[in-house]
Every structure is written in C-alpha cells, then in structure tokens.
UniProtKB/TrEMBL annotation:
Residue span, Zn(2)-C6 fungal-type domain: 17-47
PANTHER family: FINGER DOMAIN PROTEIN, PUTATIVE (AFU_ORTHOLOGUE AFUA_4G03310)-RELATED, TRANSCRIPTION FACTOR WITH C2H2 AND ZN(2)-CYS(6) DNA BINDING DOMAIN (EUROFUNG)-RELATED-RELATED
InterPro entries, A to Z: Zn2-C6_fun-type_DNA-bd_sf, Zn2Cys6_DnaBD
GO molecular function, one term: DNA-binding transcription factor activity, RNA polymerase II-specific
PROSITE patterns associated with the record: ZN2_CY6_FUNGAL_2
Species this chain originates from: Coniochaeta ligniaria NRRL 30616
Protein name: Zn(2)-C6 fungal-type domain-containing protein
UniProt keyword list: Metal-binding, Nucleus, Transcription, Transcription regulation, Zinc
Length: 459
C-alpha cells in the first residue's frame, strides 16, 4: 500500500481512481489494495479517500522535483515578452509523468497532491485521457532511449533554449540566395526557388485531403485515435482541394467556421494533452497555409492575425519534444543499436519535430515575402531544432518494416538546415519529401535534383 499523505487535509472526495492514475491521466482499473497500473510501474497506489494535502504541500513537493523537470524561467528567446516565450506558461502536463524516470514518477505520484478544488463532491476523478499515450502505456520503460520527452539527466536534456551551434549558424549563410529580397515576379516564375517552395507549401492542403498525411504529419499518426480538430481540418482541406466557382462561397464559410471553432476551443483549453497540443498546432498550421497563400485578402488578414497564436503553440511543442540530443553525435552503428521501443512512439515524436521546423520555416518564408522580419529575440533559428532524415523509416508501413530499416539503413539527425554532413555521406534514396523541400531551400532546386539523381544508387 502507498504511504499516507501528510496532514492539512481536506475532506475525502468521491474520486474513484487512484491518485497516480488521475495525475497521469490514465485509466485506472480501481483494484484494491493496488491497481494494476501502479503494480506494473511499482509506484504507490493511493485512493482519494485517503487524506489529501493542501496546496501549500503541493507547492513544496513541486519545489522538490529534479532540476531538469523544473520549467520555471524556461523561455524560447531572450525576452519574456517574446512571441516565442515559454515562461510564464501553462503548468507541466501531468500526462508527462509516464515519460519520467521511475524514481521521479514515484516522487510525483506519491508526494504531489491534487488541488483540493479539483476534488469536490461531484468529481469522479475520470479526467480526460490521452488516447495515443494510453495505447503505449504498457510499453513505458525507464531505460527508454527515444521518447517524446527526454528522460535523461545532464547535458542530454535539450530544451528549446539550446542555442544553435556554429555549424548550424554557418549553414544559414549558404541559404542567402533564397533569403534575399523577394520581388513579386519571383512567386510566378517556375525557374525560381521561391516558386518551387511556395508550390510545395501550398500543396500541403491537397496532401492532407488526398492522403490524410503531409511531409510533417505521418499517415499513421492518428490511425487509432483522430482528434476532432484534425478530422475537421481534413474536411476543410478536402473541400478546399475540390473548390470551384459554384461551391467557393460554401468552402470559404466552412473554412472560416472551422478555424474559429479551433481557436475558440483551444485558447480556452488550458489542460491539453501532448497529443491535443500537436493536433491543434498541425490543424492551425494547415489552415494558415490556405489563408496566407490562397491570395484572398480577407483570408490573408485573418491568417496574419493568428500567426502569434501559431507561434505560441509551436513554443509549447518545443518545450516538450524529444530533440534527439542523445542521438545527434552517435556513430551510425551505435545509433542503430538503440532503436525506439515502439514504432508508434517514433511516428509521434518525429511528426512533432517536423511540424515545428516546417511551421517555423513557412512563417519565415511569409515574412520574407512581405519583406518584414521578426525581432532578434523572437528568432526561432537561433535555437536548435533536430529532425531525422530517412525515407525508409518515414515510409515504413509496418512495425516490422520500421525496425528492419532501422537496423539495415542509415539515418541522419539534422540540426535545422545543417545538411553538410548528409551531403557528404547520404544518398538520394535516403531523402523523403520533407527532406527534399528543406534540402531545396538549402542548396537550390536544381542542385537537389542533381544530388538525388547522382547518389540514388550510391553504395
């Protein structure tokens, strides 16, 4: 049985689930004296009829958490007023507990108490669950090498404030041709890199409509549980991809309503799970692609008004992602010996990483087209955003294929747009559509085609 919680108690509630499952937002089978989940994870199982400590004890317990779990003062950028600022921000989601080391999880579930206001007589304790994480719950392992949220101590923790290294910053200089002043004709000339990039970005809407996937959103990401905002976004993209003069007004009305519903619902939703945060960011990003690049003045004005919200949601994702700091410097043979425990977990984590860098890239592209720049303390490119190049991993359609490709094929961890090492050792066969877009921005469209052709069959 779990140890009792210190005094200063409030009256016992009618909460049915154990405290550990409530805090982790996981389903509890309510077995006594200890539920199956607590038994499997070897954590204390305390039911709400036990006395619960006051909020002052909650604050004291929170102060006792390991330093790497403390998000106070964490911000994305130099100023706390920055658009990318992550401090102050919403409290750490309790569903992250399953990604912590077991000693930290035990501390959290046994020592942290619920806010007394959340344990009133009408509360059943059945908090919203993260269905995607629920599916993986039985696979959590304290020695997990690749998780959505880092579980290592020390320098392997890579927070969004990690500055970009010299190699990453130097790579930006090679992008000067596409980052220069934009003239209106460039958007319409098929021979310009800008035309190519904008065409690919505008294609995200049709990608979502026809394949239920994009270069940054894996086709199996929401296979078992599709959040409502993603389903509504899919519907809007389907309508937009099939618009014509006869149905244009209805398509625009549906798009406007869906965006309004998403913003109103999610801005008021302060307890979103990691899955919900990713889904709402992807949905808003896809809406932004339509609104900013459709050409309609009204849509563009509305899209511009929501850019700060998208930046804020991207900042939240930066705070919780696994940024591959532990794998970035490993030799290929060593990295292949450390596969993720679950294919679905890698899909989720990589989709999150790709969403961040692609959304920031599109925001920057739009600012360039307007010949405007964000302030230096709001520059996301001063920080490290890692992602993985491997067409074989991204396009694997089964868990078996994924793990076979992990062992047999190389994969490369890229910092932002730093492709130099990949261009030396990689092959065209490794490049998926996401990498192709970013590589075209880095070296140019024709140069990317040449690399893909020349190295496709390189051994």
């Amino acid at each position: 049985m779990g140890r009792s919680v210190a005094g200063g108690a409030v009256p016992a509630s009618r909460q049915k689930n154990c405290t550990a499952c409530v805090l982790a937002k996981r389903r509890c089978d309510r077995r006594t004296p200890i539920c199956k989940r607590c038994a499997d994870k070897n954590v204390d199982c305390v039911y709400a009829r036990t006395t619960v400590s006051t909020s002052s004890h909650l604050r004291e317990a929170g102060n006792a958490l390991p330093a790497y779990m403390n998000t106070d003062g964490l911000q994305f950028g130099g100023s706390t007023s920055s658009t990318f600022s992550l401090s102050p921000g919403p409290p750490l989601d309790m569903d992250y507990l399953d990604f912590m080391p077991m000693d930290s999880q035990a501390l959290s579930s046994a020592s942290l108490s619920l806010d007394p206001s959340s344990l009133d007589a009408t509360n059943t304790g059945d908090l919203p669950t993260d269905h995607f994480m629920d599916m993986l719950d039985n696979c959590i392992d304290p020695n997990l090498h690749q998780t959505l949220v880092s579980t290592e101590h020390g320098s392997t923790i890579d927070r969004p404030s990690s500055p970009a290294d010299e190699g990453t910053l130097a790579a930006y200089d090679k992008m000067a041709p596409i980052c220069g002043p934009v003239e209106p004709w460039m958007v319409h000339d098929p021979k310009t890199p800008l035309y190519y990039v904008i065409s690919r970005v505008k294609g995200f809407a049709s990608d979502a409509a026809t394949r239920n996937a994009t270069p940054f959103m894996h086709r199996y990401l929401y296979r078992d549980h599709m959040p409502s905002c993603i389903l509504e976004c899919f519907t809007a993209n389907m309508l937009y991809a099939n618009r014509n003069p006869a149905n244009m007004a209805m398509v625009m009305r549906a798009l406007h309503r869906n965006v309004g519903d998403l913003v109103r619902t999610e801005v008021a939703h302060t307890g979103a799970t990691v899955t919900a945060k990713l889904a709402r960011t992807q949905a808003l990003f896809l809406y932004q692609v339509i609104r900013l690049f459709d050409g309609d003045v009204t849509l563009r004005a509305q899209g511009e008004a929501d850019i700060p919200l998208l930046q804020s949601w991207l900042g939240e994702l930066c705070r919780v992602r696994e940024n591959l700091g532990d794998l970035a410097d490993l030799e290929d043979s060593v990295a292949r010996a450390q596969p993720p425990k679950k294919w679905e977990r890698w899909i989720f984590a990589e989709s999150l990483r790709r969403t961040i860098i692609m959304a920031y890239s599109v925001i920057t592209l739009y600012q360039m087209m307007k010949n405007s720049e964000g302030s230096e303390d709001q520059n996301p490119w001063a920080y490290t955003h890692r992602w993985t190049i491997s067409r074989h991993l991204w396009e694997a359609d089964t868990s078996f294929s994924f793990f076979r490709m992990w062992k047999e094929k190389p994969h490369y961890v890229i910092n932002n747009y730093a492709f130099d090492d990949f261009l030396k050792y990689g092959r065209g066969d490794d490049v998926d559509e996401f990498a192709e877009i970013l590589l075209s921005v880095y070296v140019g469209v024709d140069e990317t085609k040449e690399f893909l052709s020349a190295t496709e069959n390189k051994t």
